[in-house]
Amino acid sequence: MSSKGSTVRHHLRHTLRATAAAALTGGLVLLGAGSASAHVTVQPSTTTAGAYTLLTVGVPHGCDGSPTTRVSIQIPELITSVTPSINPGWEVEKVMADLDVPIDDGHGGQRTERVAEIVYTARTPLPDGFRDAFVLSLKLPDAVGEELVFPALQECEEGETAWAQLPPDGDDSAELPYPAPRFEITAATEDDASTETVSDAAAAAPASADSGSTSASATTTDAAPPAATWAALALGAGGLVLGALALLRTRRRQA
């Protein structure tokens, strides 16, 4: 692990611990003022247990007018692998953490580390009043009803804001000034069943999914030509018959 990654992780964890303690005691978390009217959020493309999903992390503003320079997103322990999207205006880094117990990597080997955080560092600070978004690809665990929390540390040219507050049971997180981005894993529905396999394959391996789709389309075309193709063949055959009759008539007249 790089010394930079280790420093970032230590700083984020220290800040989040302080944030959690303040939240539990009912205090407000304010590390450089941030607007309470718009939060750092996470929006999943699907919340179905065991499915691949794309998480869009939105950053809507700076810290009390100060431009954003870095956004660190903590990944829940239930998730071990994350693929962050490249954002042209930012440098991106995966911060790894050792697993207490190695797990199967799905390819005949074992995974000894997991992605603990994703850190986006602005090449040019994001001005207050402008938003940006980061997309993370990952597979959701098979844990229906489990809430996944993605605490985020937003650092600015002046000050920083820890989006890490969690509400007491039964309370609405919208009432918190600095809520942690989070969502709940849900069970598959009948609608999900018809699209889940295709969606999961596309998210896990876009290239192979695309080639498989092309192959399937070719097979369908070979087995059952569309109605337009049959119509064209019929018209072509009719034209050949009419042409032959005209040729015969011409030869008879000449004879």
Automatic annotation (TrEMBL):
<feature type="compositionally biased region" description="Low complexity">
    <location>
        <begin position="195"/>
        <end position="221"/>
    </location>
</feature>
<feature type="signal peptide">
    <location>
        <begin position="1"/>
        <end position="38"/>
    </location>
</feature>
<dbReference type="InterPro" id="IPR012533">
    <property type="entry name" value="YcnI-copper_dom"/>
</dbReference>
<feature type="region of interest" description="Disordered">
    <location>
        <begin position="189"/>
        <end position="221"/>
    </location>
</feature>
<feature type="domain" description="YncI copper-binding">
    <location>
        <begin position="39"/>
        <end position="185"/>
    </location>
</feature>
<protein>
    <recommendedName>
        <fullName>YncI copper-binding domain-containing protein</fullName>
    </recommendedName>
</protein>
<dbReference type="InterPro" id="IPR038507">
    <property type="entry name" value="YcnI-like_sf"/>
</dbReference>
<keyword id="KW-0812">Transmembrane</keyword>
<feature type="transmembrane region" description="Helical">
    <location>
        <begin position="227"/>
        <end position="248"/>
    </location>
</feature>
<keyword id="KW-1133">Transmembrane helix</keyword>
<keyword id="KW-0472">Membrane</keyword>
<keyword id="KW-0732">Signal</keyword>
<dbReference type="Pfam" id="PF07987">
    <property type="entry name" value="DUF1775"/>
</dbReference>
